[in-house]
Automatic annotation (TrEMBL):
Annotated region (Disordered), positions in chain: 113-132
Source organism of the structure: mine drainage metagenome
Protein name, entry field: Uncharacterized protein
Length: 132
């Protein structure tokens, strides 16, 4: 499948451009929800959002993991801090169906932060395939 290497290359290129975009001080994010400001008051929007979140939690659609919530909030508020209204309150959540991807990416990050596979290092193996 030639599509998979192409997608991987595109993703890596996009990730490589992120530091260049964040280095600019004049980055302007769009004001999200400007048309909704005319339809709802802030209090009505917050009540509606809280109601939807309660319903999604009742149906098991939201991942309620403190570590994942902390991570998602850190990412979300990092984006919000660059917006025109950085003091706006948001509720960030992760869909429960995506929990396997979150766990898989956390394992990948941990493995690469530790360097060579730490379990093999404890057993005296280097991962070179020669038993040394």
């Amino acid at each position: 499948m030639r599509l998979r290497p192409l997608l991987l290359s595109l993703c890596l290129a996009a990730v490589a451009l992120i530091p260049a975009a964040t280095a600019q001080d004049d980055v302007r994010l769009p004001h999200l929800g400007s048309s909704a400001d005319q339809a709802f008051t802030q209090a009505e929007a917050e009540a509606y959002g809280a109601s939807m979140l309660r319903q999604m939690r009742a149906l098991g659609l939201v991942l309620d993991d403190p570590l994942a919530t902390q991570y998602i909030n850190a990412l979300g508020y990092r984006l919000v801090s660059s917006s025109e209204s950085p003091k706006t309150r948001f509720t960030f959540f992760y869909p429960a169906r995506g929990r396997n991807q979150l766990v898989r990416s956390a394992r990948w990050l941990r493995r690469h932060q530790l360097g060579p596979d730490h379990r093999d290092a404890k057993r005296g193996r280097t991962g070179r395939g020669d038993g040394a």
